């Protein structure tokens, strides 16, 4: 074994000498590190009488291998003959480099650079708690008024104009404030009337206000104010007597109670219903001569009447379809010794965007008025009209 190591050391020393002399020694050491093989050339070179190689490194390798063959033949794994029978290296592989076929793909375009974001100015707008809306119309109509209608008038053909304005506040939390102003004024002419060229047959100036504090989802504690009068004097045909006038009468109601928000039939029927168990009705009649006609039954110097009682009001709108709409207003007040009830119904038929037809029905009960032999304390008003309308 020592001899084998000495032979290997001699081979390494020769390799170093060759490196210093810049002599090539490429591939001359592979037989020492490859699996031990019995090479015929090694035996021939060592047993030959004359050396066949002048390469000192090759001779040293041969001597080292020969020493192993003689002293440790058990380390030999294969002979050169067996190696040759196993096959030789393919010359086409040795002579030509192996080139792997690589499929080239188009290079993806680089991602575009994102532009730098411009500075954004943040604007915080104050919530809009106010909503405003309105509608108006100017129409011609056929009018019917019962003979005992408390404001006078007569049945005939006429024209009427109406304007309704609303401004409502809702802070989306607890409070709401609703304001509604209604104005109607209509005139008529009659061939049988030799005294008046024009008479007012529809006359209303009314304000409704509500201040509410939410109690539940659809209920509000509400203070309601209602004030109404008319614009012009009211006459009857061929009669110079004035039956009503501006501030004759003037009614002012204040009610404290609960307000219910209506949203029925898939939100097609909407509105409010107000119940005021505590209510005050103040009635003022500027014309003293008309005081008795409106329930002020005192001396001639008294112009007003104050009653305490209960009140109910309802304002509903039902959009039956895209063409027909029903608007209804119910008002009732009782002081437990007199009662007043009004039920206004307006059926609107929209012909086009700016043309509509209306049917107005208005039954009324007031036991503070003068008794009529035919209808008692009941009164009734009706008219149908066709004309221009506009919503905003």
Major sheet details: 12 strands, antiparallel, barrel
Order of helices and strands: HHEHHEHHEEEEEEEEEEEEEE
Share in β-strands? over 45%
Helical residue percent band: 10-25%
Low-confidence stretches: 9-24
Can you walk me through this structure?
The chain is α+β, with helices and mostly antiparallel strands and 392 residues long. The chain has helices spanning 2-20, 30-33, 40-47, 56-71, 80-86, 91-95, and strands at 37-38, 78-79, 130-145, 156-170, 175-188, 199-214, 219-229, 234-236, 239-244, 250-264, 269-284, 304-319, 324-334, 339-350, 355-366, 378-391. The strands form three sheets. It has a twelve-stranded antiparallel beta barrel with strand order 3-4-5-6-7-10-11-12-13-14-15-16. A two-stranded parallel ribbon has the order 1-2. The protein has a two-stranded antiparallel sheet with strand order 8-9. α1 packs antiparallel against α4 and α3 crosses α4. The longest helix is centred in the first third of the chain and has 19 residues, at 2-20. The termini are far apart.
Question: Main traits of this protein?
Answer:
392 residues, alpha+beta, twelve-stranded antiparallel beta barrel, two-stranded parallel sheet, 6 helices
Short characterization:
The protein is of the alpha+beta class. Helix content is 15%, strand content 46%.
